[in-house]
Request: fold
Amino acid sequence: MKRSGLSLMSFTVLLTLLMSAVPAVFAQGATPAATPAPAAATPAPPAAPTSGPRAEFQRLMEDAETKLLRLAEAVPAEKYTWRPGEGVRSVSEVFLHVAAGNYGILRRAGAQPPEGLDLRGLEKSTTEKAKVVEALKASFAHVRQATNKLTDADLDKTAPWFGDRQASYREILFFLAAHQHEHLGQSIAYARINGVIPPWTEERQQQQQPPKQPEKPKQ
Reply:
């Protein structure tokens, strides 16, 4: 009986060892899971030019952008519907005309405006101050992105222009800068008529004022 019991115990131990080895055997023959491929890195946007004609153009546009946005913020919201006469653009329409120009003029140089943007209707799309300011900001961001993608060599390319002629991309950029400063002057005149001093002028005037003299003590 003892010998029989020992044999049963040995068989049980052997069976346990065999069962524990089965998963390892199958695991060795299994195909390893495929490692997921790393996600493709998003290419960095083109860097802004630091010299050359595109850099000079961007500096002109940055000056117009800063002044137009500061002026748009300074004009009270209730004055956005003011216009100097019938058939003349209102305050909001001038600002939105600038925004539409940033898209429409650059389209001649191959920079497509955002899909779904109604350039013809943008000028009259809103009189709400916050929306007008946001539209201006978005349009100037578009100008920066578009001109960053161009190269200086691209400026010699030509495109159909007004008057049934061809214009170089360089001329198109010159025209856009002139367009912005033209309507900056118009917006300054609108602001002045409505009692708003351009913020940069007001700052300069404050800097030029002589410091106040301390009051003399009363005797």
